[in-house]
């Protein structure tokens, strides 16, 4: 699939997906969301891709939300399809077997905050701004905001953000656990690439199992979640990387992981 509104690049095992409608602050229309789904599927199925970065083109926005001009005259059935499309793409990113980082370079409002929350980690530039302002246009979040925000920062704070419609700067987002790091804007991509490269060099199967246990264990009762963890941990013992990792530790040398 050729992309109109995304740039897709792969370097040294790290795929970078760049939302590329800077004139509209990278607002997500249905074409872009279909492209994101396709790009996420490429990341999932290409064994050469070990880690994924999502970011926005230009210096102003990551994604300023779903495209309001496209949504304005939607009927409920069309709106449902648009929201389901977003959910499918974001759940694919959230559950894929490889780590993802959102490099948030500016406004991440509405659907922008929602896309970032589907990634495993959020690295924010000091100029980033977050929020779920849908209420201000007579809407509520439709790409997982009501669920992922509450899980990430707690129900009380999520209600304040979603029901109040206000924006948060990077510092506040960091304080409440919405983002992992704040990075000066000019260093955001270098720092994110450095961390993604580190992830790409780690044992891929163990990363997959770690993510699987966290993502699928979260909503289980503790006993069942712990059982899932035991199974995922035990599976790691089937890999060469586990043998190599432990052997290298005991021989006091750097491991040479092969990704299997
Ligand atoms: N949809 C469509 N176009 C958008 C957009 C959006 N979400 N956000 C920005 N744009 C467009 C603007 O219309 C404008 O286009 P023109 O130049 O053609 O007029 C251009 O991007 C630049 O935006 P502004 O002139 O508004 O820039 P600003 O610096 O004054 O303000 C902003 C920046 C605060 C991000 C402001 O653009 C804004 O509030 N955007 C909308 C944010 C929003 O409400 N997001 C939620 C959308 S609903 C949603 O996401 C639902 C869901 O959960 C799935």
Helix content: 40-55%
Mean pLDDT level: 98
Q: Architecture of the largest domain, CATH level 2?
A: Alpha-Beta Complex
Query: Which ligands are bound?
Result: acetoacetyl-coenzyme A
Q: Quote the CATH topology of the largest domain.
A: 2-enoyl-CoA Hydratase, Chain A, domain 1
CATH class of the largest domain: Alpha Beta
Q: Strand order within the widest sheet?
A: 1-2-3-5-7-10
Radius of gyration: 19 Å
User: Quick one: overall form?
Assistant: globular
| Count of the separate structural domains | 2
Total helices: the number is: 11
Cα(first) to Cα(last) distance is 29 Å
How can the largest sheet be summarized?
6 strands, mixed
Class based on secondary structure composition and strand pairing: alpha/beta
CATH H level of the largest domain: which superfamily?
Answer: 2-enoyl-CoA Hydratase, Chain A, domain 1
How many individual β-strands?
Answer: 10
- Give the strand content: 15-25%
Low-confidence stretches: none
Q: Element order, helices and strands?
A: EEHEEHHEEHEEHHEHEHHHH
Please outline the helices and strands.
Elements: E1 6-11, E2 14-19, H1 30-45, E3 51-56, E4 61-63, H2 68-71, H3 76-95, E5 100-104, E6 107-109, H4 111-118, E7 121-125, E8 129-131, H5 145-153, H6 155-164, E9 167-169, H7 170-175, E10 181-183, H8 188-200, H9 204-217, H10 222-236, H11 240-250
Parallel strand pairs: 2-3, 3-5, 4-6, 5-7, 6-8, 7-10
Antiparallel strand pairs: 1-2, 8-9
Helix pairs in contact: 1-3, 3-4, 4-5, 5-6, 9-10
The structure holds acetoacetyl-coenzyme A (CAA).
Residues 24-25, 27, 64-69, 86, 107, 109-111, 114, 133-134, 137, 139, 141-143, 145 line the site of acetoacetyl-coenzyme A.
